[in-house]
Amino acid sequence: MVQIIISQEKTIYRKWLGVFCFFIEATLFAGTIFGLPGLFQVLSHRGIYQNKCLSSTKDPCDAQKNQYQNALTVGIACFNLPLFLIGIFIDRFGCRFVKLIAIIFHMIGWLSLAFLKPGRDSLLYVHCAFSALSGSITFVTSLTASDYFSKSRALVSSLLTGAVISATMWYSIFEILVEDRQIELSTLAYIWLSFGLFMLFTSFLFLDWNYSFLNLPYQFDKQSEIKDEIKVNNFRRHLTSPLYLLLVAFLSILLISTNFLSILWQPWISYITKQDQSLVNQYTFEYTMSTIAAIVICPINGYLLGFRADRSEKQKLLNISVVQTIAWLFNIALCLIVMFPSSSMIVPVIIINCFARSTLLGGCQAVICTFFPSEYIGRLTGIMWTIVGIVAFVNFGLVKLTDDMSKAWRVWVIILASVMIMSCHLIQIWMKYFQERKQQSKDVQIVITRL
Asked: I need a surface site. Which of 30, 213, 227, 316 has the fewest CB within 10 A?
C-alpha cells in the first residue's frame, strides 16, 4: 500500500514536471511565427527581397513588405491547416510519434533561416512554413499534458496556450540583438535549432505512443469524462454537437481580427508615425513583447472555465458564456479602435489585442480540453485549427484592400461585421444556460414537493 502511494506521488510530480517542460518548449518556439513583423527591419537590412525595390534604401519598401507579409500569412496558414491530419496521426500513432516528425520540421525551418541571404530569399517562406508546422505540432502534442489531470485540464491547457502566444516576442528580441551587433541572425537560428534536442527529451520522457515499448507509467485521467461518455459515446456526435460547431465558427471568425492586425502591423504603424522608423521599431517591440501577458491572462480564463464545472451542467454553461462573451467584447473593441489610426490609439490597440487574442485562444482551447473526451481531443483540436487555417486565407484578400492605409478602415468594417454575426453563438450558449437553470429549478421544486 505504501509503495502504491509513493508511486502515485512520483507520477504526480512527473506529470507536473512535464507541464513545466512543455511550457518552456511552447514559450521558446511554438508560436514564434506570429511575431515575424518584429524581424522585418533585420530582413530589410540583410537585403532580403531587396530586388523587389526600385531603389536602394535602408528601410523596407512596399514590395519588400508585401513579400514579408505574404510569408507571414503562409506561416499562419501552415500553423493551422495541417492540424486536421496531425490530429488523426496523434489519435492513430500517439503524440510521441508525431512529435518526432515535428523535430524534423523544426530543423528544416531554423536551418533555412540560418542560410537565408540575398539570392536565397525564398528560404524565408521555407522558414515560415516549417517553423510554423513544427510549432503547431508542438502546441497540440503539449496539450495532451492536460489529459493527465481530471480537474486541472482547463488551467493546464490555457497555461500552455498562453505560452504559445508569448513566443511571439522572440523575433523582436532577435532584432535588438542583431541590430546592436551583439550576435548574428544565423547564430540565433542555430541556437533555436539546437532546441530540437530538448524536444527529443520531452518526447520520450513525457509523451506516449501507441506501441508496446518505452511507454509512460501512467495514462490519461478519464475520471471527469465518465458522465459525458454515458451520454455520448462516439466521435461523430461530438464533432456535430452544436457546442463544437459554433465554437469552431466563433474562433475562426474572431481570430481574423488579431491575425490580420499582426500582418498589417508594420504598414499601420508606419502610417501613423509617418514612416519614422525609430518609432516603428519601438512600437513593434512593445507590440510583440506585450504577448508575455498571455502567460497570465490565459490561465485566468482556464480557471474561470473550470470553476466548479464538475458540479453541474449549469455551471459549465455559465463559465463558457462568461468567457466567450468577454472574448467577443474585446474583439469588437479592437476592430473599432483600429479604424481610427492615430498615435493616441497605439497603446490601447496593443493592450486590447493582447487581451482579445489571449482570451479567445485560451478560452476556446480550454473548452475543447475540458468538455470533450480525451480520446477525441487530438482530432477535434486538429479539425478546429484546420478550419481556422482555411479561414485565415481570407487575409490574402484583405491585405489587397489596404494598399491605401487611409482607407484601411473599410477592411475593419468587414471584419467587425463578421464578429458581430458571431453574437449568435453567444445568444445560443446564454439561452442554453438559462434553460438549464430553469430545468434545475423545476427539478428542485419537484424534489421539495415529494418531500
From this structure: 213
